[in-house]
From TrEMBL, chain A:
GO terms for biological process: regulation of transcription by RNA polymerase II. The lineage of its organism: Eukaryota, Viridiplantae, Streptophyta, Embryophyta, Tracheophyta. InterPro entries: Mediator_Med20. Belongs to the Mediator complex subunit 20 family. It comes from Erythranthe guttata (Yellow monkey flower). This is Mediator of RNA polymerase II transcription subunit 20.
UniProtKB/TrEMBL annotation, chain B:
It comes from Erythranthe guttata (Yellow monkey flower). Its main location: nucleus. The keyword Transcription applies. Keywords: Nucleus, Transcription, Transcription regulation. Belongs to the Mediator complex subunit 18 family. This is Mediator of RNA polymerase II transcription subunit 18. InterPro entries: Mediator_Med18. The lineage of its organism: Eukaryota, Viridiplantae, Streptophyta, Embryophyta, Tracheophyta. It is found in: Nucleus. The keyword Zinc does not apply. One of its GO terms (cellular component) is core mediator complex. PANTHER family: MEDIATOR OF RNA POLYMERASE II TRANSCRIPTION SUBUNIT 18 (PTHR13321:SF2), MEDIATOR OF RNA POLYMERASE II TRANSCRIPTION, SUBUNIT 18 (PTHR13321). GO terms for molecular function: transcription coregulator activity.
C-alpha cells in the first residue's frame, strides 16, 4: 500500500495530520437504480470494497440530523415557516451543533446548548432524526467513512452515505482535482461488484451560504443537509412510481 | 440558571465604584460594548409566544455572537424570602448568521440596545460578574454608532453568577455577602424592584476618590 501508484493517484503514506486547517471532505450518498432500493447487502459490499483497496479500519463514527417542525397555535400552520430546518451533530465535533435552513441558504454553528434553547422556546420541535453511522478507514492521506442512514430508534435502512476526506488540503478549489481522481478510482473499484446503484456527489454552492473556500465544519453540515434532502426526494420519487 | 441583582448609580460616581470594585475583586476591569437584540416570535408561531436575545460583542476585533434565553424565575414562599433573583438562563455562542436564522424562523426584532461600560469577573464564593454600563438606544435600526443613553446620567449595575438547582443557595449567599460591600454606593435588588440611588453615594464616592479606596467604607 505504501507509495503504491494507483492509476494516476499516488497514495502516499499517512505521515501527519494537518491540525491548523481542516481537511476537505466530500459527502456522497447512494443512489439506487430505478426500481431498486438500498439494502444491507449493498452496505456490506461497499464496506468490503473499502477494505479491498487496503483501507485500514480504524474506528466507528456517528453523526445525527434532526428535522425541526414549526409549532403553531392554529391547527394548520401552513407554509409561513421553513419546512427544511434541520439540526446536525457531527461525529468529529461533539461540542458543536449546526442549524441549517437549506431553502434560505443559512447555516449557523452553535454550542450544543442551542438544542436546549430551542426546546425552551417551544416554537420548533424535533420529531424525526436520522443517524449516519458506520466504520471509518484510513487510506494514505485519505480517510473514508462508510455509513448507514437509519431513523433514530430504528434499524430500518434508509440510505448509505460515504465521507471522503483528504487530509493535507483545506482549500475546496485546490483539492478538487485530487478528490475527483480519488472518487473516480473508488467508483471504478465499486463498479466491479455490479451493485444496483452508485454513489452521487452533488456539490452545494457553498458561497450561497456565505462560506469561503477554506473548508470547515459548516461546510460538512451543509453537505449533510443537502444529501438528506436528495435522499428524501429520491425515496419520494421511487414511492410515486409504485 | 443564574442569580441576578441590579441597581443604578449616577454616572459621576462610576469612577469611585470602579475603584471599589478593583479593590474588592483583585482583577482588572474588562471593557464592555454589547449590542443586544431582543427578538419575539410572530403571532401563530409556537403554542406560547417566545423571546430570544442575541448579543453581539463589539469589543472583540471580530464581533462575536451569543444567543441567550432567559427563562422563568424561581417562585414560591422560599423565593420571596431571597433578596436575589434566581432564574433559568441558557446561552450558546453562535456564528454570525444567527440573526438571519431567527428572522427566517419567524422571530422579529422587538427592541435593541447598546450597553457600554465595563465588567469585573472574579471568584468569591461563586463565579461573580459585575457589569456597570450605560444602556443606550439606537436612533436608527442597528446603528450602534448613533446610540443615545436611555437614562442620561444614570448607569445600570448588574451582579450575576451562574448557578444550578443544587447550589443556588450557596451562590445567593456569596452574592448577598459581596453586595454588602457595595451598599454605601448603591443598593442592589431583584430586577424589577426599583430602589433608586442611595443617599450615602456622594459621600462614599468622595471618600473613595480622595484616597483611591485605601480607607475602608
Amino acid at each position: 500500500m505504501w507509495g503504491r501508484e494507483w492509476g494516476k493517484l499516488k497514495i502516499a503514506p499517512f505521515h501527519f495530520r494537518v491540525t491548523s486547517a481542516m481537511p476537505i471532505k466530500w459527502i456522497l450518498h447512494w443512489q439506487p437504480n430505478p426500481g431498486t432500493t438500498v439494502n444491507s447487502q449493498i452496505l456490506s459490499e461497499v464496506s468490503q470494497c473499502a477494505e479491498s483497496i487496503n483501507g485500514v479500519k480504524d474506528g466507528r463514527w456517528k453523526s445525527t440530523l434532526s428535522f425541526y417542525k414549526a409549532m403553531g397555535r392554529e391547527q394548520t400552520i401552513g407554509n409561513e415557516f421553513p419546512r427544511d430546518f434541520v439540526g446536525i451533530s457531527l461525529a468529529e465535533q461533539p461540542s458543536k451543533y449546526f442549524l441549517v435552513i437549506r431553502g434560505q441558504r443559512l447555516v449557523v454553528e452553535a454550542e450544543t446548548s442551542i438544542q436546549a434553547i430551542m426546546e425552551k422556546l417551544q416554537s420548533y420541535k424535533t420529531r424525526v432524526a436520522l443517524n449516519f453511522e458506520g466504520n471509518q478507514y484510513q487510506l494514505g492521506d485519505f480517510q473514508l467513512r462508510v455509513g448507514k442512514v437509519v431513523p433514530m430508534h430504528s434499524e430500518s435502512l434508509r440510505g448509505i452515505v460515504m465521507e471522503m476526506e483528504y487530509l493535507p488540503i483545506s482549500s475546496w478549489e485546490k483539492s478538487h482535482q485530487m478528490m475527483g481522481d480519488f472518487f473516480d478510482l473508488w467508483q471504478e473499484a465499486l463498479s466491479k461488484r455490479s451493485l444496483s446503484g452508485h454513489f452521487v456527489h452533488n456539490e452545494p454552492n457553498f458561497r450561497e451560504y456565505g462560506l469561503t473556500d477554506q473548508y470547515s465544519f459548516q461546510h460538512t453540515a451543509v453537505q449533510y443537509a443537502s444529501i438528506t434532502a436528495q435522499m428524501i426526494a429520491t425515496s419520494q420519487g421511487a414511492n410515486q412510481q409504485r | 440558571m443564574e442569580c441576578v441583582v441590579q441597581g443604578i448609580i449616577e454616572t459621576k460616581h462610576v469612577e469611585a465604584l470602579e475603584i471599589l470594585l478593583q479593590g474588592l475583586c483583585g482583577v482588572h476591569r474588562e471593557s464592555l460594548r454589547v449590542h443586544e437584540l431582543c427578538l419575539k416570535s410572530v403571532p401563530n408561531l409556537g403554542l406560547v409566544s417566545s423571546e430570544i436575545r442575541l448579543l453581539c460583542d463589539l469589543e472583540q476585533p471580530e464581533p462575536t455572537w451569543t444567543v441567550r434565553h432567559v427563562g422563568g424565575a424561581l417562585r414560591g414562599a422560599g423565593a420571596d424570602q431571597i433578596s436575589v433573583l434566581v432564574r433559568n438562563m441558557m446561552e450558546s455562542k453562535v456564528s454570525k448568521n444567527a440573526l438571519r436564522l431567527f428572522y427566517a424562523l419567524g422571530y422579529k426584532l422587538d427592541h435593541e440596545l447598546l450597553r457600554v461600560g465595563f465588567t469585573f469577573q472574579f471568584h468569591r464564593g461563586a463565579q461573580i460578574t459585575v457589569t456597570v454600563s450605560s444602556v443606550n438606544k439606537m436612533l436608527k435600526l442597528h446603528s450602534t454608532d448613533e446610540a443615545v443613553p436611555v437614562t442620561p446620567g444614570i448607569q445600570l449595575v448588574e451582579v450575576t453568577a451562574p448557578a444550578s438547582s443544587e447550589n443556588y443557595t450557596e451562590v445567593v449567599a456569596a452574592m448577598s455577602s459581596f453586595c454588602e460591600y457595595l451598599a454605601p454606593l448603591l443598593h442592589l435588588s431583584k430586577p424589577g424592584v426599583s430602589t433608586g440611588v442611595v443617599p450615602t453615594a456622594a459621600a462614599a464616592a468622595a471618600s473613595l476618590m480622595s484616597d483611591g479606596g485605601g480607607t475602608a467604607l
